[in-house]
Design goal:
74% of the residues lie in helices and 1% in strands. The chain is mainly α. A two-stranded antiparallel sheet has the order 1-2.
């Protein structure tokens, strides 16, 4: 390492050079390159956070705390998986939280007020999410409306639609021992966290789609250089719209896991989950500029957000502290994303 433009002491120069060489050696390690340095660091952060919460609050080690955190992981995880596809194209979707609430309210009201079977209600949730994905994707891809504007409009539409459909009433889904309560087995059977296995299975499928299929390749290419993709003869509008459809579908599935864990849903809410889902996504290594995404990183990022949420509650702190910390996480993650893009360029 040579410093042509800096005047430094000899010892300092050696220390910096050795630090750089060690870092390069770590980066070039075969195992580190295979797993990814960013993901390794995220796992370390996750373990350190958990250890700190256990030291401060020993009861945090209890099984119930872990299950509470996992309840948060399930629905937030599906939101983050979905928005990963959108951000990979260079877009954004701030409507995912309110759309999730809209899905759960419309399907739940259909179940409780119109008597549709439970299986049909769950399908309605997915279809409502998919409909919003089609709506958002069509406006962004075919009408060239900026994603930010589209998602803001969809957020308001989702809130309004849910309120109108339910007549501004909250909706309570059946308990496990009630008629139709079998859907709660999607989250937990006895003490077995079934939802965790379903979520991880969905993450594996998303990773395969993003990294091993034509759909994923085109979505990532759109984020890298959409004009070059268009000039190569690819129908960029179709693939950009598909990213939003995938996102909307996953949001509809996330709504099912939300009501499976929390039962009651009220109209007009959901905004708070937008930033958390995006934070988990960006923290995991998905670039806000598009073209670079990591499903496994998103999963770890979601686990960190969920652990943070449960840890703050365990310490008896106000939930507003989580909002502050999540906002800081987003800023820091985007800042390092910008630095990484500058180095790559």
């Amino acid at each position: 390492m040579i410093y042509n433009t800096f005047t430094v002491e000899k010892g300092v120069t050696v220390a910096i050079a050795l630090g750089g060489e060690k870092m390069e050696a770590i980066k070039n390690n075969r195992l580190v390159k295979k797993i990814g340095l960013n993901r390794i660091l995220l796992v370390i952060v996750l373990l350190v956070m958990y250890g700190a919460f256990v030291i401060i609050k020993p009861s945090f080690l209890g099984y119930s705390r872990i299950m509470n955190a996992l309840n948060y992981v399930y629905f937030l995880g599906f939101l983050s998986l979905g928005v990963t596809f959108v951000i990979a194209t260079g877009g954004i979707d701030f409507s995912i939280g309110p759309v999730m609430f809209c899905c759960s309210l419309v399907s739940g009201y259909s179940l409780m007020s119109y008597g549709v079977p439970m299986a049909v209600a769950l399908i309605i949730s997915v279809l409502v999410g998919m409909a919003f994905g089609i709506f958002n994707g069509y406006l962004v891809a075919y009408w060239d409306v900026p994603p930010f504007i589209v998602s803001m409009a969809s957020m308001n539409i989702a809130k309004g639609l849910a309120s109108v459909f339910t007549k501004t009433q909250s909706v309570s889904w059946p308990q496990a021992d009630a008629d139709g309560g079998w859907f709660r087995n999607l989250v937990k059977i006895g003490e077995i966290p079934v939802g965790l296995f379903i979520f991880l299975g969905a993450a594996v499928i998303c990773a395969i789609i993003l990294n091993k299929t034509k759909i994923g390749r085109y979505i990532l290419c759109l984020g890298s250089n959409s004009e070059a993709v268009r000039l190569s003869g690819v129908n960029v509008k179709k693939w950009r719209m598909l990213a939003y459809v995938i996102c909307g579908t996953l949001v509809g599935i996330g709504a099912i896991f939300f009501v499976s864990a929390y039962t009651t849903v009220q109209p007009g809410y959901g905004d708070q989950y937008n930033n958390e889902a995006i934070a988990g996504c960006v923290m995991g290594g998905t670039s806000m500029a598009g073209g670079l995404a990591s499903i496994s990183g998103t999963v770890i990022g979601v686990l960190i957000i969920a652990l943070l949420q449960e840890g703050i509650l365990a310490l008896g702190l106000n939930k507003n502290y989580q909002l502050i910390i999540t906002g800081i996480i987003v800023i820091v993650a985007v800042y390092f994303d910008v630095l990484g893009r500058r180095r790559r360029n």
